[in-house]
Amino acid sequence: MARVKRSVQGKKHRHAVLEKASGYSGAKSRGFRKANEQVMHSLRYAYRDRRARKGEFRRLWIVRINAGCRQHDISYSRFVAGLKAAGIDMSKQTLLTISVTEDEIDGIGGENIAGAYACMKYFQSLDNANNKAFVPAFKKLWGEKTVIGDVTQAGYLGPWLWKLTCEKAGSFDVDKIAAASPGVEFKAAPEGYVRIHENHHLWSKTRVGKAKLDGQFELIFETADLVEPDPFPKGYQ
After folding, report:
1. Are 119 and 211 within 8 A, CB to CB?
2. Tell me, what's the pLDDT at 90?
3. 36 pLDDT more than 80
4. With contact defined as beta carbons under 8 Å apart, do 92 and 41 qualify?
């Protein structure tokens, strides 16, 4: 029997490959052969770099803990051994962090942080219309296994807020943009509606999440209203 190259499954495969390659330039996004080669290369690099990033985050995690341990004249290994010997784990102790996001958990492993709490503006698991559209679009561009943390989302907000402020100022002049920024609103932010304060920081909601084994956070608390930003609180200037 002759081989059929344009079957339903074949067309479905071609469509899936071209969809993944939609962000590439030239023939890499239009021609199937070039697109398929680029997608295969990209997937291999993504797999390699995810593994490398996990190792980097694990090393960074150890360095951070080790630095704290050294201040108390104890080594990292003795500290970890002491925790296990004392039966301390996140299901029995309360830990609140402001620096561990989904990105760090992807590196250190969910089993090492599950049960801990984090205070952030954004979690990938947020259940709102903006985030439900943002997460699939982000994963389509950067890979299905990519995670999105508070810092990543903040990086996404920056260019949009800059664009909106430039449009309001009608200029790219830095002084005019700074003067125009207070009151600029971004309604499509993945975390939800945000607004620029007069001090050039954001009005946004504060959230507390509980880390899970899969590396995501369960939302535990969310402020009802936007919290006024105070980057220089009294006593900390």
Report:
1. no
2. 62
3. yes
4. no
For the entire predicted model, the pTM comes to 0.65
Token match 């697109």: residue? 35
Same domain, 103 and 38: no
The number of folded domains in the chain is 2
Q: Which tokens hold the place of 229? A: 């930003």
Cα angle 106-110-114, degrees, rounded to a multiple of 5:
140
In a domain, 56, yes or no: no
Residues in CB range of 211: below 8 A, 6 or more apart:
90, 100, 105, 110, 113, 114, 115, 116, 117, 118, 217
* Strand stretches in the chain, DSSP E: 96-97, 117-120, 185-186, 194-196, 202-203, 207-211, 217-222
Residues 24, 103 within the same domain: no
CA separation for the pair 148, 135 (Å, rounded): 8
In a domain, 205, yes or no: yes
Mark whether 36 and 140 lie in a shared domain.
Answer: no
Residue 234 lies in a domain: no
What residue type is assigned to position 126 of the chain?
L
* 123 and 13 housed in the same domain: no
Q: How far apart are CA 10 and CA 23, in angstroms?
A: 22
Neighbours of 189 (CB within 10 A): 24
Range of the domain at 101: 95-222
197 falls within a domain: yes
The pLDDT of 207-227, averaged and rounded, is 94
Residue found by looking up tokens 């800059």 in the block? 162
> pLDDT digits over 41-98, tens only?
888 888 888 888 877 877 777 788 778 888 888 876 677 667 767 776 666 667 777 7
